[in-house]
Amino acid sequence: MNIQIFQLGLLGTNCYLLQKDGEALVIDPGGDPETVLNTIEENNLRLHAILLTHAHFDHIGGVESLREETKAPVYIHEEESSWLTDPSLNGSELFQVGTISTSQPADYSIKPGKHKMGSFSFEVFHTPGHSPGSVSFWFNDDAVIFAGDTLFRQGIGRTDLPFGDHVTLIHSITEHILSLPENTTVYPGHGPATQVGEEKRTNSFLI
């Protein structure tokens, strides 16, 4: 599986384009997705889905444009299904960045468990704490997990935003991420990638 990373939106949110056998998935298009769209078109990729780790404004800013251009369905955890169209929930009002809304709800709720979309097989973990509907996408065959704003290199997701909870976040990280093989690469919502083993040994928030 090929993984391309784009920093999108005001906060440079990591948007991931996964490619395999001419097919693709996009995770967290946080801003103008023009570069993502260009890559999809240039490589003649079939986009199966737009997957959201959670619905904070900096992760959803490019959702509607990408959906309109590709007709790919949007997936999010049911606990944040109403956040996409509600600036008071997705944080765009709180941070005064303007009304960021997809104007349309997600097409599907993504549930914990194993999923297959085209050539892609992965497992969804419900990893709340940063937000109540946060999820992580684990691709076992490739030893990678896309953790959104749950776990960062030498850091963890903030829990001082509405509906955040520190104890819940630590539980999510411990149960669903640190329990994975140590060579699992963790792709976060912001900043560089890391590995499970490195965070277990050196992340001061988890020791």
Secondary structure elements and pairings:
Blueprint: E1 2-8, E2 13-20, E3 23-27, H1 34-42, E4 46-51, H2 57-60, H3 63-70, E5 74-76, H4 87-90, E6 108-109, E7 113-117, E8 120-126, E9 135-139, E10 144-148, E11 151-152, E12 155-156, H5 166-177, E13 185-188, E14 194-195, H6 196-202
Q: What is the level-2 CATH architecture name?
A: 4-Layer Sandwich
CATH class: Alpha Beta
| Separation of the first and last Cα atoms | 32 Å
Q: Beta fraction of the residues?
A: 25-35%
Spell the H/E element sequence. EEEHEHHEHEEEEEEEHEEH
Largest sheet: 6 strands, mixed
- If you compute it from the alpha carbons, what radius of gyration comes out, rounded to the nearest whole angstrom? 16 Å
Give the oligomeric state. single chain
Notable characteristics:
Metallo-beta-lactamase, Chain A; six-stranded mixed sheet; 14 strands; 21% helix; 6 helices
Structure overview:
The protein is an alpha/beta fold. The strands form 3 sheets. Strands 1-2-3-4-5-6 form a 6-stranded mixed beta sheet, with helices on one face. The protein has a 6-stranded mixed beta sheet with strand order 7-8-9-10-13-14. Strands 11-12 form a two-stranded antiparallel ribbon. The protein has one domain (about 1-95, about 110-200): 4-Layer Sandwich (Metallo-beta-lactamase, Chain A), CATH 3.60.15.10. Helices cover about 20% and strands about 30% of the residues. The mean pLDDT is about 95. The radius of gyration is 16 Å and the shape is globular.
